[in-house]
Specification:
Strand content: 15-25%
Strand order of the largest sheet: 4-12-11-10-7-5-6
Number of domains: 2
Bound molecules: pyridoxal-5'-phosphate
Radius of gyration: 21 Å
Distance between the termini: 36 Å
Helix content: 25-40%
Structural class: alpha/beta
CATH topology of the largest domain: Aspartate Aminotransferase, domain 2
Largest sheet: 7 strands, mixed
């Protein structure tokens, strides 16, 4: 079937939830995707931060083949060999103690919110301590609980009433943060770098105050590391840059190298709020995903891996800053490691379409922010190819928004 035929069939059969790019992917290799006609695309979106080791990392593929023929799935009523070692590894890397395995980011956020409420009420059922503070400009997922903590109204409004008890704080507003803390607050949930929000790094002072206020009010400090964690910034976790010590951390996206696996990590005293029956998942933490995740973590832990992310990330950032010097359409370059963005003066959709024609994949968030989440194995020559391909595309964009246009 051709791209046009597939698109037509999808338009008749799928619920209309995605605006797809006109690309029919048939094969992936390293940082490249190939379409049905054999056209090669340099992918700097990386499956939205999932394909951190590229499309066909040979060690991941070996594990995949072996485990898929050994034990594909077993229910959580039975032990398998890989959950405990994976939990142990995640605990060591994060400084936390215990793990609950889920499948998707949203599901992990749900788990964290439930855990925070269970912990807040450990001493007194029905206590008034249930408020979850979230930040303006945040994105935590699409299920009803996670959506309640997600900022953009366009995502939330059609589904109201959402889960009650979530209150928003302006990101980096210390005064409002202090005002919002009370004895009703069970937790504060933050993305150290707001991904969907346009790759916006929170300020050190604000993050440290959030952790400190949470401690002072017997509330929990939760970091959503679903997009910025697991090596993306050149550290295992983005919060480590600021010396933060969260009570709960949620991870997902790249954990099992392309298969769904998410995790809620928590301190012992917090994790104790869960007991059998209080939470669960049919698929969460299956043997295939857990074994893949063990291999993924083993690879990113190898000497030089995270240094590579930092080095190539900085190289890429400098290249983007170079483009900014030449092209006034770029207003700001943001991000850390291999989570980078270029804020444009105009809408970025056109650039994404043109990129595709030129064999480059990236996306646009917040209307005017080009976001780059390449595989962590990307090399400097890939960055050169990408930025050289991006330059003529950005050159064709008007330097500023035409009068009266609302991009
Ligand atoms: C920071 C963050 N949290 C949560 C989610 C939701 O993850 P999922 O789409 O796997 O449910 C995302 C997805 O992009 C995310 O970036």
């Amino acid at each position: 079937m051709t791209l046009e035929q597939i698109a037509e069939l999808e338009s008749q059969t799928l619920m209309s939830t995605y605006e797809r790019l006109p690309l029919l992917a048939v094969r992936g290799e390293g940082c490249f995707l190939f379409d049905a006609a054999g056209k090669k695309y340099l992918d700097f979106l990386g499956g939205l931060a999932v394909n951190a080791l590229g499309y066909n990392h040979h060690e991941m593929m070996t594990v995949l083949r072996d485990e898929s023929e050994t034990l594909l799935h077993v229910s959580n009523l039975i032990y398998h060999r890989f959950q405990a070692p994976l939990a142990q590894k995640l605990a060591v890397l994060s400084g936390l103690d215990r793990v609950f395995f889920a499948n998707t980011g949203s599901e992990a956020v749900e788990g964290a919110m439930k855990l925070a409420r269970a912990y807040a009420r450990r001493a007194e059922a029905g206590s008034e301590r249930f408020v979850i503070l979230a930040l303006e400009n945040s994105f935590h997922g699409r299920t009803l609980g996670a959506l309640s903590a997600t900022w953009p109204e366009k995502y939330r409004k059609p589904f109201e009433p959402l889960v009650p008890g979530v209150e928003f704080v302006r990101a980096n507003d210390l005064d409002q943060l202090k005002q919002k803390f009370s004895e009703c607050v069970a937790a504060i949930l933050v993305e150290v770098i707001q991904g969907e929000g346009g790759v916006v790094e929170l300020e050190r002072e604000f993050l440290q105050a959030a952790e400190h206020l949470a401690r002072a009010h017997d509330a929990l400090f939760i970091c959503d590391e679903i997009q910025c964690g697991l090596g993306r910034t050149g550290r295992f976790f983005a919060y480590q840059k600021f010396g933060l010590q969260p009570d709960i951390v949620v991870v997902a996206k790249p954990l099992a190298g392309g298969l769904p696996l998410a995790a809620v990590l928590a301190r012992n005293r917090v994790a104790e709020a869960f007991h059998p029956g209080l939470h669960g998942s049919t698929f969460g933490g299956g043997p295939l995903q857990c074994r893949l995740a063990l291999k993924f973590l083993e690879i990113i832990e190898r000497p030089g891996f995270l240094e590579h992310v930092r080095e190539v990330g900085e190289y890429f950032r400098q290249k983007l800053l170079g483009l900014q010097e030449d092209l006034p359409v770029i207003q700001q370059v943001r991000g850390d490691g291999l989570m980078l963005a270029a804020q444009l003066a105009v809408a970025g959709k056109e650039a994404v379409q043109q990129g595709l024609q030129a064999g480059l994949i990236f996306n646009c968030t917040q209307e005017r922010v080009l976001r780059f989440l390449p595989p962590l194995i990307v090399e400097k020559q890939d960055v050169d190819q990408f930025t050289e391909g991006l330059r003529p595309i950005l050159q064709t964009l008007p330097a500023a928004r035409p009068k009266g246009a609302h991009a």
